[in-house]
Every structure is written in C-alpha cells, then in structure tokens.
Design brief:
Layout (H helix, E strand, L loop, with lengths): L7 H5 L2 H20 L6 H13 L2 E2 H8 L3 H13 L3 E5 L6 E5 L1 H25 L1 H19 L2
Antiparallel strand pairs: 1-3, 2-3
Helix pairs in contact: 2-6, 3-6, 6-7
Protein name: Winged helix-turn-helix transcriptional regulator
GO molecular function: DNA binding; DNA-binding transcription factor activity
Keywords: DNA-binding, Transcription, Transcription regulation
Length: about 150
C-alpha cells in the first residue's frame, strides 16, 4: 500500500512552522519598536533577564532562556563589546558568570518604555483573553518539551 503524500492542509497545521512564523513576525515588531534604544529584541530579553534574575552562570542563563550555550555565547558577544555585560571566570574555571554592567542596566531602563509600548499594542491587537491564553499556552508548550 502506497503511503499518502502530505497535503497542504496537513503542513499548514504544522506546529513548528506556525510557531516559527509567529515568532518571526513578533520578533520583527519588537525589533522595530526597540530600534530607538539600539537593542534588538533578543538583546533586550537577555539583559532584562539579568536584571530580574541577577548575575548567573552562563549555563544557568542558557537554561533560563531555553538556548543552547553556543547560541547564547554568540548572542553575548555584541553585548560584551558594547560594555553592557561582563563575563568572569568563577573559582571553578569551568564556570563563567554573566553580569550586567551599569551601562547594561541603563540600556534596559531606557528600552523598557519601548518594550512596554509594543507589549501593550500586541495585547490590544489580540485582546486580553487571547493574549493571556497565548502566554499560558506558550509557557505550557515550553514546559511540555523541557520535560521530554
């Protein structure tokens, strides 16, 4: 018996494809909104995470952001060059700690109103119930796949 070829409808229902499309369009909106701050959305999220969580080892930061270490290291390099973070060796030389600098904190504080504005705009476009549901569903999705 021949296997049935995948239809366009089945591919249109692909979770990965739809999440990636949504992520790209939302990232573009955040990047555009954050442009006056000089930060990209990925940089803002990373720096804001350090504001909320404090200094942390590279591995722990990668886990918090659900990123592999090599991707995180690549994302940290421009922030390090701009003097927004510092990375220091711990006593255990295998551990490197990421810290926010004073300039990094000011960058997050300066960008925060821009971030709040785009957050509000997305909430308005989706409506409170859909936006809240989306956040819940995305959190549940992350949890479901972290467990596997």
């Amino acid at each position: 018996m021949k296997s049935k070829p995948h239809s366009v409808t089945e591919l249109a229902d692909c979770t990965c494809a739809n999440l990636r499309k949504a992520a790209r369009i939302v990232t573009q909106a955040y990047d555009f909104a954050l442009q006056p701050s000089g930060l990209k959305s990925t940089q803002f999220i990373l720096l804001a995470n350090l504001v909320e969580q404090g200094d942390m080892p590279l591995t722990q930061l990668a886990e918090a952001l659900v990123m592999d270490r090599t991707t995180l290291t690549r994302n940290l390099k421009p922030l390090l060059r701009q003097g927004l973070i510092r990375i220091e060796q711990e006593e255990d030389l295998r551990v490197r700690k990421v810290s926010l600098t004073g300039d990094g904190l000011r960058s997050v504080e300066d960008a925060r109103p821009l971030w709040e504005e785009i957050q509000a705009r997305i909430g308005e476009r989706l409506g409170d119930d859909r936006w809240s549901g989306l956040i819940d569903d995305l959190g549940a999705t992350v949890e479901a796949f972290q467990e596997s």
